[in-house]
Design a protein that fits this description.
It is a single chain. Helices cover about 70% and strands about 0% of the residues. By secondary structure, the protein is mostly helical. It has one domain: Glycerol uptake facilitator protein, CATH 1.20.1080.10. InterPro entries: Aquaporin-like, Aquaporin_transptr, MIP.
Length: about 230
């Protein structure tokens, strides 16, 4: 239960930060899309570092792809993975509603921001593949806080070097559909994005298995640990 609550709360704050900072950026820098993206990416990277550091002793994946890769690697069982994924999706929905309300918008507004095309879809594969490599590679470090800084730094950078601005998270993608703002994504674009994220996660899991023969638990504190 504690792990599920941690995933729900963490994903809710993550989505609130992504959507909320996008709305703030849009209002503060209405004529400069590049500056809006910079503001949005810095806020997202910073909140990821904070949330992972705070919740890592309980559970700090905040991403169904990461949880599914954990299942593939045997770090969690199927039932636990299912509960955590549901909690992540639910947390994302809570977060987007809260973000909308904080900025005096309707609790739910369906996004009209179409995202797609082969370039952006490839960008989601690359973004998610890279995220999986960073997460499970950083877990090999003897200093567990390395994961938080590695993930926060990677996502901040991936906002810029991927054509899709690095959603790399099915729970966040679904939630962002419910905000017709800077960070939103149109419903028709959600399924292709999620499909590419799952492909990227699968390739990432294969690379982790190839590159790291020794389980992470043998060299570092697990990503999810129930105290």
């Amino acid at each position: 239960m504690r792990r599920a609550v941690a995933e729900l709360v963490g994903t809710a704050f993550l989505v609130a930060a992504v959507v909320g900072s996008g709305i703030a950026a849009q209002r503060l820098s209405p004529e400069d899309t590049g500056l809006q993206l910079l503001e949005n990416s810095l806020a997202t990277g910073a909140v990821l570092v904070a949330l992972i550091l705070a919740l890592q002793p309980v559970s700090a994946s905040f991403n169904p792809v990461v949880t599914l890769v954990e299942r593939v690697l045997g770090r969690v069982d199927t039932a636990t993975a299912a509960v955590l994924v549901v909690s992540q999706v639910a947390g994302g929905l809570v977060g987007v509603v809260v973000a909308n309300l904080m900025f005096d918008l309707d609790a739910v507004s369906i996004s009209t921001h179409d995202r797609g095309g082969s370039g952006q879809l490839l960008g989601e594969v690359v973004a998610t593949l890279g995220l999986v490599l960073v997460v499970f590679g950083a877990l090999r470090s003897p200093r567990i806080e390395t994961v938080a800084f590695a993930v926060g730094g990677y996502i901040t950078a991936a906002y810029w070097f991927t054509s899709s601005t690095s959603f790399a998270n099915p729970a966040v993608t679904v939630a962002r559909m419910l905000s017709d703002t800077f960070a939103g994504i149109a419903p028709a674009s959600v399924l292709p994005f999620v499909a590419m994220q799952l492909i990227g996660g699968g390739v990432g899991a294969a690379l982790v298995l190839l590159l790291h023969a020794t389980p992470a638990a043998a060299t570092a504190v697990p990503l999810e640990e129930s105290p």
